[in-house]
Amino acid sequence: MRTPFFSSSKPSTPSHNSSSPHTFCETLLDETIENAELIIEKWDLDSSSVSTTSYNRVANLFRDNPLEAKQLLNAVNDLQHAMQFVIKDSASSKLLVRAHNLMQIAIRRLQKEFYTILSGSRYFLDSETVSSRSSRSSTATLSSLSDEDEVSEDNNNNSEIEKVSEVVMADLKSIADCMIGAGYGRECVKIYKLNRKSVIDETLYYLGIEKAISSQIQKMDWELLEIKIKNWLSAVKIAVTTLFHGERILCDYVFSASDNIRESCFSEIAKDGALTLFLFPEMVAKYKKLSLEKMFRVLDVYDAICELWVKIELIFCFDSMEVVKSQAMISLVKLGDAARAMLSEFESAVQKDTSKAVPGGGVHPLTRYVMNYLVYLGDYSDAISEIIVDLPISLQTSLPESYYLSMTTEDGDPPPSVVALRLAWLVLVLLCKLDGKAQLYKDAALSYLFLSNNLNYIISKVQQSNLKLLLGSDWILKHEMKVKEYMSKYERMGWNKVLMSLPENLTIEISSMEVKERFSEFNSSFEEVYRKQSSWVILDQKLRDQVKVSLANKLVPRYRTFYEKHRRELVRNVIGMESTVRFAPDDLQNYLSDLFHGANVSVSSMGWSGTSSPSVSTSMSSSNRSR
């Protein structure tokens, strides 16, 4: 029987056999015992012999006496080999009892050394140090690390901490190899598991990873759960790439002598902590209070697992760790289901929106909300592509087939990604909803201004975000042309009455009465349009300036030609001129410049402000503008 770990009882050493060994194997064992006794009894934990001092019993053999530590290991190996020969030749030899007792003395010392190194060298066995050491290794497998008595020239430039770490790992490996070879692997593994499992548990605790119950998560307020999610996101990468990766490296290296031992050892020290780590995302996915705004936290967690998946598969590749990979995959699937549900809910919420149109034809709150949401989604394109790959697009709506044709590509070009198609679809759902809201305006011109504003805002959000890469330049160009089409319709419907008040052919002669009628008609139509559109708004400065320039180019030159042509007649009849000609050509330019800021202007302030030439009134130039 083997002496229990750190037993205080010392096995009795029988006296030498009076008769000489009769076989070669027994002679070999007798000589091996004689040689091994010197070093083994010197470092006997309980010996009272002269050769064993009190210092020897408490000293760190491998740290303070590496040469004698190696001699002790060699003595155990030699003793084990000699015993195996004798067992085959003469299993009842009394020398086996003596050798076995001597072996237990040595094993107890090695157990003590193994425990001391593990517990006293935690700093040098830090997972980050072990991981970084491995990452710089020129070899792909851990089993190719140098033997314990060799120092690789590749590590000459390593820090002192890493050099000490190498020595400590080599010492642990040499003890493990020796004890496993001698048949005491179970005792060695027991010490290792107790020590390193506590390291994993303590590290996870300091990282904020604790066991949670699903019912507790369900009862949490979102603010508290979000804090826990943020903490998990900060911890998971460290836990996988440093903690578990480092422990896997250390375990593989120390127990490289046995595949079964290193698998069972790593499984027992890491399984519980890893399951706790990957169970939390599943609880988040099942949180009953998830809403659209919380989707991005779900995607953060999903993305984190996806990014670490390759390492997860490598670190937990053992059959005994399949449960860990399974839990991580379950969490990934549940998170994907939750994200798909929220994405469908988002689309449904857009389609069911019943909010009213905004005054002045500005950007609708729905447009802002949807586009900000899609911009965030665009930043999660990799995760979204996996989540929505099997999520069908609902075609229960009267949408133009030309849209789908615009998303296809020419022969030889790569097809649009599932993310691009989904995002483009959601934009289209928004545009269809905006079309419905545009019909709420009684003025057709304002409807088209509203559509221009909102589509222009959508394009700007696409251009300023990752959506630009996903939707592509063709999508942007197509919708920019649509903005121009909307603005053209706005100008035609909003200003056609003013333009039609002037003669179609400005070169022909007309009577003074008709001139007066034309000016009067122009005044009333311009005042009416201006009054109506003074509260309309174009939020984008570039688009606003483009519209002003376009209107000015259509209106001012025609009015100037008509004004200059009939000015002499008006001058001859000064009386009543102010009421007949209320605007000079430059006045129109100034009035147009004050449009689309959303400021209401009194009609009484418009018109002739002087006796010689009409100009913009003081009240108009100082009108309050707002965006």
TrEMBL record:
It comes from the Eukaryota. The keyword Translocase does not apply. Residues 1-22, 137-158, 606-627 are annotated as: Disordered. One of its GO terms (molecular function) is phosphatidylinositol-4,5-bisphosphate binding. It holds the Pfam family Exo70_C. This is Exocyst subunit Exo70 family protein. One of its GO terms (biological process) is protein transport. Belongs to the EXO70 family. One of its GO terms (cellular component) is exocyst. Component of the exocyst complex. The gene is LOC104214047. Residues 230-594 form the Exocyst complex subunit Exo70 C-terminal domain. Keywords: Exocytosis, Protein transport, Transport. Signal peptide: none annotated.
